[in-house]
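Practice set, problem 2.
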Amino acid sequence: MRKASALTAGGAVRFIPAGSHQLRHIRVIGGFLDGVQLDLTDGLNCLIGARGTGKTTVLELVRYALDLVPDPQIDPETCRRVESVVQHNLGPSGRVELVYQTQNGLSYTISRGAGENPLVMTADGSATDMTLRGGTFPAAIYSQNQIERIADQALSQLSLLDNFESQPIAAIGSEIRSLTNQLATNANAILPLQEQIAALAEEIAGLPGVQEKLAALPPVVGENAEAIEQAQKSKSLRQREAQACDGLYQFLQDYDGQLEAVTGQMAAQTGQLLGQELLDGPNGATMDQIREALLAGGAEVEDLLRRARNCVGQMLAGLAETGSALQSLHAQQDLSYRELIEKDQTVRGQATERANLERLKNELLAKRRQREGLVGKLAALHKQRAELIETLSELRDRRYRIRHEVAQRINAALHPTIRVQIEQSGHLEQYRAMLEEILRGAKLKQGVVSQKIVEKLFPLELVALVRDRNLMGLKRRAGLSDDQARKVLDALADPETLFALEMAELPDKPRIELKDGASYKASSMLSTGQKCTVILPILLMDSHHPLLVDQPEDNLDNRFVCESVVESIRQVKGHRQLLFVTHNPNIPVLGDAQRVFVLESDGAQARKVAEGDVDECRDAIVNLLEGGEQAFKQRQERYAYA
C-alpha cells in the first residue's frame, strides 16, 4: 500500500497509511480517567498498566463515543459491559473526546457524555449535524472474551465479516430498513381495503337475484305499453342520477374535512415545539429565526388551504343548487310517470314492484362500481408490494455478495489454516422462532413442525402456499401430515401474519473453521485457545479501519503469540492503525510498538505516567510485563541464555 510521509515537529518522518482511517487522539474529561490524554500514532499502539488502571475502560469509552456498541440481540453481554463502564467510570457529567481522521484526510472531533448522543465537530471546532449511525467513523473494537463469543455465535461472525466493508454494508442496511418501513406502510393500506372489498362483496352478492327478479317481471301490455316501459327506464336513470349527486356531495364534504383537519397545524405545532423557554434561551435568536420562518411559510400554506376550502365550498354550494334544480326536474318527471301508470291498476302494481327492484339494483350497482375502484387500488398496492419485495431481495443478494467477497479475501490470506464459508439466508433461528410463536395454540407440536418448515421452505414460498390454500403442496414440500398441514394453513391464514412473514429475514450464516490435522473443525467446536487462534488472525488482517483489541493474548500460548500474532502485527501495522491493551511483553517489544502508554491508579483515579516508543518505555515494560528486572534476569539465567 502506498504511504504518504509527513514531518513531525521534531523533524522526523512519520508515515501515514494512505487511504486508512486513523484515531488520532483520545481524551477523557471527568470520572475515573479524568485528564487522561492519548495521542495515537500510526501502526502499533499499546496500552499497559497494572490491573484496575482503566486500560479496558479506554477501549470501551472509544466504542461508546463512536456509537459502535453491538446490536443487543447479537451481543447482549458487550452491550451490558459498555453500559456498565460508562456508568461507573465516566460519571454523570464526564465525557470522552476523540479526534478521528478519515481516509481522505479530513479530521473530526467526536465528543460524547454519559447518556448523550455523540456530537461531531469539524477540525476548526464547528458543530456539524452528522450522526454516527451506519459506521460513519468505522473502527473494529473487541473487548475481553468477545473473541471467544465470535467463535461461538454465527451472528457475531457475520458482524466480524461486515467490519471489513462496514460502510457499504451499513448503506445497504439503511436501504433495507427503509424498504421494510415502506412494506409496513403498504400492509397498513392493504388490510383495510381488503376488509372493505370483502364487505362490499357480501352486499353485491344479492345483485344477480335482483336482476333475475327484474327479468322475470311480465312485460307491460296495453295501448300505453311502450310509453310506460320508456318511463320506467327514465325513472331508473333518475335514481342513478340522484345517487351520483349524493356521492359527489359526500366526497366534497369529506375532502373539505381533510383540508380542515390540517388547517392551523403549522402554527399549532410551531408554538408547541418552540416554546417561550427555548426562545428565551442562549440560542433564542436562532430559535426565533426558525419560528419566524415556519410561521411565515405556514401563513402561505394556510392561505392556500383557505382558498382551497373556499373553492370546495363554492363547489358544494354549486352542487347543492344544481342538485336542488335536478330534484325539481325529478319531481316533475315522477309526477308525469305517476299520471301515466295510474290509468291502469294492473300496470300500477307492476310499476311499483319494478321501481323498488330498480332502486335496489341501482344501489347494488353503485356498490359494485365502488368495489371495482377499490379492487383497482388494491391491485396497485399489491404491485407496489411485489416491487418492494423484489428490491428487498436484490439488496439482500448484494449484501451477500459483499460478504462472500470478504470471506474469499480471508481465505486467500489465511489458507490453509483457516477457512471461511458463508451460506446465504442460512441462519434459520429467527424464522423458526417466528413460526413457533404463530403456531402456538394450533394444537400441534409447533417446535417440530416449525423446524420442518424452515428447513424446506423460505418465507416467501410458505406465504405463496398458504395464500393458495395448497394443502398438498405444503404436505409434500415440508413433509407434514394432513392434519399438520391443515392446521398450519389455518394458523397462518391471517393477512397480517402473511405480511409479517413476507418481510422475515433469514440472515446469512458464516462458518469459520480451523484446520486440525487433515480436516477442518467449526470454530464453535474448538477449545477456548483454538477459538482465539482462529478468530484473532482474521481480526489482524489488513483493513482501512483502526483495530482496538483488549488483551489479544488471552487464552493463547506465548509461542502462538510470537509466531502468529506478532508476525501478523508486523505485517499489518504499516497499513493499519492498531491499539492493543496487553499484559504480554512480546506484543509491544517484538511487535516494535511505535507508541506505548502506561497507566497507573491509586484506586480512586487513574492517570497516564509515561508514553513513548518501546525503548522510551523500557522500564515500565520490564516492571509491568516482565515482572521486574530481577525476575527477567533470573529467567535469563535459568534458561542459560547469554
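Problem 2, part (b): a different protein.
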Amino acid sequence: MSNFSKIFGLAGTAVVFAGMAFGQSCTGASSSAAFVPVEETTAQVSQLTFTCTGVAGGGLLNVTVYLSPALPITSKITASSTNTTEAFASVGTIVAGVAPAGVQGILSNNSLIFNGIPLAAGANTITISNVRVNASSVAVGTGVPPSISETAFTSGPGIAVPGPTATTTVAYVQSGISSKAFKGTSAVGSYVTGALVASPSTSAASFVICNPYKPSTSLAASTATVIQINENYTTAFRAASEAPQVTGFGGGPTSLGNAVTTNDRFKLVFSNVPANVTLYVPVSLIPSQNGAGLAKIQLTSSETGAFAAVSASSSSSVAVAVYGGGLAPVTISGGSGTAVFDLTTEDLATVDQFNIPVFIVTTANSVAGSATPFTVAASFAPVGASQIPNFVVGGSTTQLTGATFNLCTTSLLFPFVTNQLGFDTGIAISNTSTDPFGTAGATAQAGVCTLNFYGAGAPSPSAVPLPTSAAGNSVNSGTTGAVVLSSVAAGFQGYIIAQCAFQYAHGFAFITNGAGGLSQGYLAGVIPDVNQVSRGANPFGCTAAASCAVGTGEILGN
C-alpha cells in the first residue's frame, strides 16, 4: 500500500506543475531571430518579447534569462561591483531605442537576472534587449545554421503564477566572412578607373626575382594577388550605424551605450614575405562587386579607434591610381605585416564582395628565390579588443596562397657531347650579364651552372657543378667557366642541359679527336626560362619578347 501512496503522491505533484504551466502569468514568447556571425564575440541577439498578466494593483516582476547553448554573455558591464550590464528588460513599447520603464540585467554565469521590473495590473509587454554573446564556440557547418535560444523564468509578487516561458530562438549562427586569393591580371585595368571588377584568375602569381617589378611600370605585371572578401549573408557586415536595441529608459540613466565603437573591419595578415619585397594596397574606397558597388571599404591605420585614412605613397615606383587613388605600403617586419580595411559604407540588402589588389615592388636580383609562397589570412577586425564589435580569428579564416618568387635562370642545351672512341668535348659557359649598354643593359648577376647528363656513362650523381675558380663554383658576371668532359664525366656520350642561376648565360661546345683528327664546335641552345615559360611543344620559336611572354617552344642557338 505504501508504494501505491508514493505513486499517487508523485502523480499529484505532476498535476500541480502541469497546472502551473497552463496557468502561468507570462506567455506568448516570440522573437524575430536573425543571423549573427560566428566570428563575433559581441554578437547582439534579437529581442525576446512575452506578455505577463499583472495582479490587481500591480507589483514587481523578476526574470532570469537562460541561454541555450550556454554561451558567454558579453553585454557591456556598467557596474563591475554588481555585474550590472546593459542587457535590459523593459515594460511597454520601445520608441526610437528608448523604453518607458525597466531594469538592467545582472550577469550571473551564463544567465541574466532582472529583478524588480514594475508591472501594472493586466497585460504587460516585456522585452529583453541588448543581450550580446560570444558566438565563436558554436559549431557551424554546411547544413541548417545552429540556433541560440532564450528561456525566461518569471516570478515575483507582480504575477500570480511563476514559471518559464517557451524556449524561443533569438539568433542563428553562421560564418560571416569567407575569402579567396586570385592572381588578378585579367582585371587589373579596371582598378585604375575604379570600375567594378570581375573575378580574376584563380592561379597564383609567380615572379622571377632578376626582374624589377613596380605598379607604375605595369599594373598587371606587379599584381601579387587579389584578396576577395566575401560576405556570407546580407547583414554579416555591419557599419557603426547599426541600430542599438535600447539606449535609455524612463526614470533611469539618460543613456545606455550598447552601440558599436567602430565599423566592422577586415584584416589581412601577410606572412612569409621575402626580404626586399614591398607590398602595396589601395588607399581609396574599394566598392563591392555587388549591389552597384554601394558598400565600400577603405584602408585605415589600425584595427581599433576612429577611422584614419592612410596617405598614398609619394614614391615614383608606385605612381599609379588604383580605384581612383594611390597605393600605400604594408609595413613588413620579419616577413609579416598587416593591412586593415574599414567598412565605411554598408549595404544591408546585398551580399557584398570586395576585391583588394595587392601589388609588389622589387628591384632586380634583390630577392632570394623560394619555392614557398607568401600567405595571407583574411579575417574580421578588430580581434581581441575590449570594444563592440570584437571578433576572433576563427574557422572561417584560412591561409590564402599569395605569390612565389622564383630564381632567375638560363638553361642551355648541349645536344651532343662525347668522351668515347678517342673523342673529348670542351664546354665553355659565359656569363654575359655585364655589357656596354648602361641603363639599357643587363643587370650584373652571378651563380652556379649545374651540368645535367643524359646518355651512356652518365656520372653519379648526374648533376655536376661547372667547376670554376670562383667561390662556390659561381660563374661571375663578365667571366667564362670552362671544363673538359673527360674531367667530370669520363666515358660519357649523350647530351647535357646546363642550368645556370643567372640570366644571359651562353655556351659553346668543341668536340675534338685527341689524335689531331676531326673537330667540330657549336653554340649551345637556349631553353626558355622554365620559371617564366613552360617548355611546351609549341613549334614556333621564342623569337620576340611578346611571343615569349605567352609561351613558345625553342630555337637552338639563341
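Answer key, part (b): The two ends are 110 Å apart (CA to CA). Residues 1-22 have pLDDT under 50 and may be disordered.
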